[in-house]
Amino acid sequence: EIVMTQSPATLSVSPGERATLSCRASQSVSSNLAWYQQTPGQAPRLLIHGASTRATGVPARFSGSGSGTEFTLTISSLQSEDFAVYYCQQYNNWPPYTFGQGTRLEI
Amino acid sequence: QLQLQESGPGLVKSSETLSLTCTVSGASISSGVYYWGWIRQPPGKGPEWIGNMFHSGSIYYNPSLRSRVTISVDTSKNQFFLKVNSLTAADTALYYCARHRDGFSPWGQGILVTVSS
Fold first, then answer.
1. Inter-chain touch B47–A1, beta carbons under 8 Å
2. Is residue A101 less than 8 Å (CB to CB) from chain B?
3. For A37-69, what is each residue's pLDDT tens digit?
């Protein structure tokens, strides 16, 4: 099973600033990595797939990069609605698909 | 617009079997190249994949849950199902169904299942 490790667990930033979230895989997942955003009381929402492709309707301030074992989600200018929990998920070697433990983005 | 909706009991007893239904609207689960899956999320924790099915009948399970989980489908009703047996308190979670190709999207709203002793 591939273990996904996200860092930091919590990231404190201010609106308008840039946020950089990291995700590391225990072995290569190529570019088969997705990022999700989860706000309180809501289901996760797909932001990025293929490590760097924004899902339909996702604002351009969200960008993903990386391949192999190291991945980054960058939010270029934080809006109030971006404060949420973010998860990465690999779908390269499955079963099982595996998720990271999440990064909480807070003000 | 594609939508998924979970239904089932919100409270089940320890050692019993949980049965959930995912009803899909806006697309047919019999067509396309998508998998349809179940994911759960214990309170305050990250998501855990339970299993996926393809309309052809292929079904894949998380090895950690395989011995207790069954996924099935009724294409005539555009529904797929989850059964989890031998429940314990550790199975208390929000249960989601979702479509998967490159990532899970969209997700249903989720159903909170509490396992009581």
1. no
2. yes
3. 999 999 999 999 999 999 999 999 999 999 999
